[in-house]
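Escalated from tier 1: cytidine-5'-monophosphate holo job.
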Amino acid sequence: MNKPPVIVALDFPDQRSALALVDRLDPSLCRLKVGKELFTRSGPAIVESLTRRGFELFLDLKFHDIPNTVAAACDAAADLGVWMMNLHASGGRRMMETARERLEKRSERPLLIAVTILTSLGEEDLAEIGFSGTPQENVLRLAALAASSGLDGVVCSPLEAAAIRERQGGKFLLVTPGVRPATASLDDQKRVMTPADAVQAGATHLVIGRPITAAEDPVAALEAINKTLSNA
Ligand code: C5P
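Tier 2 regenerated the structure:
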């Protein structure tokens, strides 16, 4: 059976609290995501602790810099043994291509995906930084740029997944946060979809944090989500 598409977001302030949760999880039932806070506090040691436990890891550091610097950072992340990493598509084609080419020098390369438009930005925020058009138009344009730069996929809202899937081929990865089981609290997420609906819309991977990490029984919460997916 394929591994379920859930990537558990480890939004913890330190390694000890992250590992307390991770030690209850089974690497055959989920993948993990380490973001800026945990990585900045715990460094490569947290990545090594997680991969040593058999987990596939998405290093969510959203690189954005000149091509040579981003490519070198991607190479460093690959040395840590991560499964997937990301960068900002707005860094441009040359930045994305250089990073992808650097990773392709390896016999086995990690997946490289792009962030298009942060979901925290509305049309007015985009105008202020010089982007015209709606967030959706910008998302579709940057997703197409990521695809034509040879990236493996994008991070997107589940509400954008169907439109991107329609334009990009079936192999393009769509990694969606903003996913909530029907019974879970929304927390600070506003526009959400259930796991099954997100997959139906074209998502290939679901980033889910608090509905699992803050659950009274995180293992049961993950199993319940996986069950709704296998039933769907
Ligand atoms: O706890 P929750 O399920 O809301 O966590 C979602 C994770 O996905 C967090 O790590 C958050 O930073 C990330 N994320 C998001 N929305 C985006 C991009 C990333 O929620 N647009």
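The longest helix spans residues 135-148.
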